[in-house]
Specification:
mainly alpha
């Protein structure tokens, strides 16, 4: 059965959707953004009132607002037109459809998320959970994870530090055209395992005297990445630490005792952090920073919501994008196709050409929506390293129009509901869930299947095999010792 609270929320969403029919066409785009904002706010309040039970969903609504809605929202609040924010060259129809996609995405995700609360599914899941035996890492696995985390942290720190220096010296844009690194390949390969080893480390549930220093190491690395200009990766790494602390505290009351103080400090420091981020933004593009405190906050939200720009341009360029890529190309599955063709084993065994960077080959391959769009919008700038990124809603609309938006958003809702259960008894499954959550939170600014290709990357799978072999060997040794 659906709870009264969930039922009221869904009825509220239906009323919001129906109200769009009564807005005149010239106000419909504005109404879509405003109503989407209201849905996000109501959903966040609902999660807060229910004591943060739905943490992944809570933070997804925040990232959805930041990456898709925030730019349009502050534009409307300042009395300007959405066309001034996106582009005056776009037609009113393209803008209206783009804003409707932005509204529909969050409305479907939130509605389906709260609909998935039937008593049958809940009871079945609860019964299965009781029957599960907790699978903890063996001692040798714990030792290996500690060593792996330490080694990958050093390598990742070196990578982040080199990238930060390079960005400050040559500019943020130059990172996209950089072909080489001064670091040996082995350091970069090991550094690519950093996030998976971090999630394995957290899932081992070491004592807080061990866990806190490890979190501090992760925080330092994320700050270096942030200073290089990559906000998405750094922000989601920090969010995962917050989610982990909250979940761990629910299980162990003494893991973090200063919840109220931390929340108060977070709220007080948030505007300051936004200003610091804007200072870094001006630094990375080589311009002088002389904004006021309020202007910095305005520009921060304005600059984050670039996915609305991607969606609306995706509507306008839909036919042209289909025309320049191979027939039958799917940008949704392109992430997986690119992963299967571009990983080191497939390239070695079958001789697939290595396509990377802002190249014509990448734009015409049909595997990267962001590359194809950037190539059509600003060809010369794209080839010089400037891109626009992607958004899962834009890919869904390109491949399957409105039915794609509906089905894809339903899938994201189910994915978020699944990620809520990160307290699974299997520590390795828990690590995969945490790593998956880190990517899902940036779906409003990323490819639809990036979460899948990221967590099942070849380096991650190789590390997983080593961990499983160590656990199996240890169990066999203990059985022989006992027998």
């Amino acid at each position: 059965m659906i709870s009264k609270s969930n039922f009221r929320f869904i009825v509220f969403e239906i009323i919001c959707a129906l109200s769009l029919l009564y807005f005149p066409p010239y106000l419909r785009a504005n109404a879509c953004i405003i109503l989407a904002d209201i849905i996000v706010i109501v959903a966040l309040i609902k999660v807060i009132k229910e004591r943060f039970v739905d943490l992944p969903f809570f933070f997804f609504n925040i990232t959805y607002f930041l990456f898709i809605l925030s730019g349009g929202t502050v534009t409307l609040l300042s009395g300007l037109s959405l066309k001034e924010y996106v582009s005056s060259s776009l037609s009113d129809s393209d803008l209206e459809i783009g804003c409707l996609i932005a509204f529909l995405g969050i409305a479907i995700i939130d509605a389906v998320y709260f609909l998935w609360n039937s008593q049958i599914l809940f009871s079945f899941g609860k019964r299965i959970q009781k029957e599960k035996i907790e699978i903890r890492p063996t001692r040798i696995q714990e030792q290996f994870v500690i060593i792996a985390f330490a080694v990958t942290s050093v390598c990742k720190f070196m990578m982040a530090f080199e990238t930060m220096i390079y960005s400050q010296t040559f500019g943020y844009i130059s990172l996209y055209t950089r072909e080489t690194s001064n670091l040996p390949s082995i350091i970069r390969y090991i550094g690519a395992l950093f996030y998976f080893t971090t999630m394995l480390f957290l899932s081992c549930k070491f004592s807080k005297t061990i866990t806190y220093p490890a979190m501090a190491v992760v925080l330092v690395i994320e700050l270096l990445i942030l200073n290089s200009g990559d906000r998405g990766e750094a922000a989601c790494g920090i969010i995962i630490l917050i989610i982990y602390i909250i979940q761990r505290t629910k299980q162990e009351n003494d893991f973090f005792k200063h919840k109220k103080v931390a929340l108060l400090l977070l709220l007080l420091l948030l505007p300051i952090c936004i200003n610091v981020l804007q200072m870094l933004r001006y630094t990375r593009i080589g311009e002088a920073y002389n904004n006021s405190f309020g202007q910095s906050i305005y520009e921060f939200f304005e600059s984050q919501g670039v996915s609305l720009d991607i969606i609306t341009y995706g509507v306008a360029l839909k036919d042209r994008m289909s025309a320049i890529v191979p027939e039958g190309t799917s940008f949704i599955w392109g992430q997986i196709t690119g992963y299967l063709q571009q990983n080191v084993f497939m390239r070695t065994l079958f001789g697939f050409s290595y396509i990377r960077g802002n190249t014509v080959e990448m734009a015409l391959s049909g595997n990267s929506y962001g590359s194809t769009m950037a190539y059509l919008r600003f060809k010369n700038s794209y080839l010089n390293g400037i891109g626009c990124g992607t958004c899962f809603l834009a890919e869904l609309y390109q491949d399957a129009s409105w039915i794609g938006i509906i089905i894809g958003s339903v899938f994201v809702a189910f994915l978020l509901k699944k990620l809520k259960n990160i307290s699974y008894n299997n520590w390795i499954v828990n690590a995969f869930y945490l790593n998956c959550m880190r990517i899902v939170l940036v779906l409003p600014r990323g490819a639809f299947f990036k979460w899948l290709t990221e967590i099942f990357s070849i380096p991650n799978l190789m590390l997983l095999i080593v961990v499983l072999i160590l656990g199996r060997r240890n169990n066999q040794y203990m059985m022989r010792k006992m027998g």
